[in-house]
Amino acid sequence: MRQALWWKKDYDKEWSAMREGVRRDWEEVKRNGVALQTWEEIPANADFEDNEEAVRFGFGARRQYYGQDWDPALEEELRHAWGRDFDYFRRAIRRGWVAAGLRGLPVGDIETTSG
Fold first, then answer.
1. What is the rounded distance in angstroms from the CA atom of residue 89 to the CA atom of residue 80?
2. How do residues 24-71 score in pLDDT, each as one tens digit?
3. Is residue 84's pLDDT more than 70?
4. 55 neighbors 93 (Cβ within 8 angstroms)
5. What whole-number distance in Å separates Cα of residue 21 and Cα of residue 102?
6. What letter does residue 47 receive in the DSSP assignment?
7. CA dist list (Å): 60 to 31, 34, 43
8. Burial (Cβ within 10 Å: 0-12, 13-18, ≥19) of residue 105
9. What is the crossing angle of helices 48-64 and 86-102, to 10°?
10. Looking at residues 96-108, what average pLDDT do you find?
11. CA distance 109 to 38
């Protein structure tokens, strides 16, 4: 599993605790085509299991970059930390970022613009 240099062991425990809820949200959005707050549309063929690593990375990023908003500068840092194929997984990474905020973890403001 891909892991950023900044990943902390505590993030594993927190991810394990929220994983099932995030998976259910993913499936609901995929099935109904309805976005939860700032969740972007999930393509009908996008399986959670195929995107879980990216969602998990976004969750950890939200913890690591506490107090920061998702903006171009942060996105560039995340692109560097994720490495290849960032553009392909960007929406899944962002879903993890948003999910961490929606689940009440101590984070900065959620950006409400799409992108």
1. 13
2. 888 887 777 665 555 566 666 788 999 999 999 999 999 999 889 999
3. yes
4. yes
5. 11
6. -
7. 26, 25, 23
8. middle
9. 60
10. 69
11. 12
